[in-house]
Fold this sequence. Notes:
By secondary structure, the protein is mostly beta strands. The protein is 10% helix and 25% strand.
Amino acid sequence: MAEIKDPENTIILTLKDGEVVIELLADVAPKHTARMKELARAGKYDNVAFHRVIEGFMAQTGDVEHGNMESPAYNARRSGTGGSDLPDLPAEFSKLPHDRGTLGAARSQNPNSANSQFFINFKDNHFLNQQYTVYGRVISGMDAVDKIMRGEPPVNPDRMISVRVAADVQ
């Protein structure tokens, strides 16, 4: 695992193929960073499916409303259509590029509609620059991200087993 410099702004995402350590960029996107930490601390991201995973592009997850694969209400066809019970976030666009391993806020056509969903870029996707908020980057475990099952939706989707703020992990 990578050296964690700022545990309060580091997320540990557990996938079937290992741990992914994500450095959140609180100085660039403070509202998106705070939202991810709030949902992680509440356990809302645990068992949420990767509902849209496109080879050579990105892996999307974070639908805490419809994506929890352990919930009796889980429906693969609805996964990706919801958010959290918290208000949507305003865009926090920056000059940071959508490089391989960066975390982007998923949203609808409305730039101020990001809520709980996010994606991890498999490669540099600079056509997304300044259109989607970049608020984190994978600092270790990208090999586990690369193994996420592909599909829209995947036939047998992978999930985030757990999502924790590093400061809370013993």
